[in-house]
Amino acid sequence: MSWALISDSSCNLRDWQPTAPHTTFAFAPLKIRVGEREFIDDLTLDVHELNSAVQAESSASSSACPSVGEWAELFRLADKTICMPISEGVSGSYNAAATARDMVLAEDPNRQIHLVNSRAAGGKMDLIFLLFDRYLASNSDASFEDACAYFDSLEQNSKILFSLCNYANLAKAGRIPKAAGVIANKLNIRILGTASEAGKIELVGHTRGEKKMLNKIIDTMEAEGFTGGEVVIDHVENETGAQALASRIVERWPGSKTIIMPCNGLDSYYAEMHGLIIGYGMGVASGR
């Protein structure tokens, strides 16, 4: 029996290949509209070109989720499918996937499709798929129900943090006053956020400067119950900052493993230049 692990392009694994036998990973690309240009967030996207276009555009940009047809095509790739799109609380991607699931199961009731609300984006999603692949590789005879229960436990025991230091998109979209965005950028104010239980954006706090922000990330992870393990750090053209955070994590929790990867287009669009998205977990989701 074949497996498909499916997401949208808010997951930054991109061209990742699972290690579990007979298992495929694929994602449905979101689209980002910048001025008169549309960027499709697939493997051909030049993310730096997108970031530059967003910074240069004076008007508000927008994003669009994958269509029902795009999701349905991915749900036909394998006998057993687990799909985890970006948080239902911030995008219509989950609802489009749910419609596609119902459509494909009506066509072929023998297929098995499990749809999971990530309540996140980026690093948390990356971590869950990586850990679940390890589970499948070691439990090739697991039932669909047991595998789905394990996947759900990974989602429930993992967390996301995001650190922002540019606010142009928020200001252009009218989510914060333009003057406030300008002042925040000039004062080097950085915002730390997370996802609520419903998967919506929630503010943790702010600092001035990267060093204080790295300390706040470590303090927040510890307060949430992290005691070491695997951490995924996604970055928007900020590998130096990601490496600095990775060093802090290993220093605080020796033996921890950090995985650093660049953001896809969608996460770059939301986290903005030099932003970081961190995925980590406790218990079963710690990777230990």
UniProtKB/TrEMBL annotation:
GO molecular function, one term: lipid binding
InterPro entries: DegV, DegV_C, DegV_domain_contain
Sorted UniProt keywords: Lipid-binding
Keyword set includes Lipid metabolism: no
Pfam families according to UniProt: DegV
Name of the protein described by the UniProt record: DegV domain-containing protein
Source organism (scientific name): Collinsella aerofaciens
Upper taxonomic lineage: Bacteria, Bacillati, Actinomycetota, Coriobacteriia, Coriobacteriales
